[in-house]
Amino acid sequence: MKAMQLTKKTNVAVDLHPLNAAGLPVPVPKEDELLIKIQTCAVCHTELDEIEGRTPPPQYPVVPGHQVVGTVAEIGIGVQGFSIGERVGVAWLFSSCGTCEYCLSDNENLCADFKATGRDVDGGYAEYMVVPEKSVFRIPEIFSDLEAAPLLCAGAIGYRSLRLCNLKDGQRLGLTGFGASAHLVLKIVRYKYPYSKVYVFARSETERRFARETGAAWAGDTSDVPPELCHAIIDTTPAWKPIVEALKNLRPGGRLVINAIRKEEIDKDSLLKLDYSNHLWMEKEIKSVANVSRRDIIEFLDLAAEIPIKPAVTEYSLGAANKALYELKRGGNRGAKVLRISSSE
Questions:
Q1: Does the residue 345 lie in any domain?
Q2: Which of 10, 201, 332, 334 has the greatest number of C-beta atoms within 10 Å?
Q3: 66, part of any domain
């Protein structure tokens, strides 16, 4: 099968070809596993973190990609919930221990034995992959393969981030950065919290314009001051400066939720500007988001179909994965980037 592999740590901004094309054997499903014939795989900023060493794979080479849509091509012994030909999705959660307190409370994302698709095991930048049955999700028919792929991470982790905000209808939400995840959060807020205003902070005018078109009440630069302080802010950026800027725009008792698996190198100039009385005083909170749980994915897919949420996507071929990653690194994106591996539509 055709695949794109990561073979070493590198810098996407310098190395324009961090992934290498490879011909690999089609994997064989083991007990309780499915073989997926992949149609699409969305590109995520976490792939940049893997490539640049902020969340490195335990070994090289590895096939990245964790927002996968495909069809069941083969089933292993013991699989009972799926049949050949069904359309399914795979997300960042590949496996967990299943027995710890976190797994038993629907918080597999916190399991010490959490394994990530496309980092700890081969993922979706390929024509086929294998995955445990319990980590496969049915895709609502309303979505095309291209539309469904970003929902499996950008959408699901955005949904979890919004849940952690504890937002009430009528309260103001801020979004720092406006890429794949944030534009889906805005769509959820407009549906679930119709009286809430969303303020967007983004360094790119392209992103700010996209935010206003999508329904943001206001959009400004990362360092701009919004019309009113926010009850909660979700940070979706890879940088540190937006953290400090977001804290000053929170009202007393407000909460900042950081929607990022990893942050890029510390911007010391920004952190030196962190001032307790201005940024953290008055019981402001900071909460991180660690991956997603199966519950997040199931609930979000149902909600996305109900609304319905149609992500903005830009399509690339599998061979153009390096181009998609470079353009993601450069910023100024509208929505999500999705690799078209094969077609069932």
A1: no
A2: 201
A3: yes
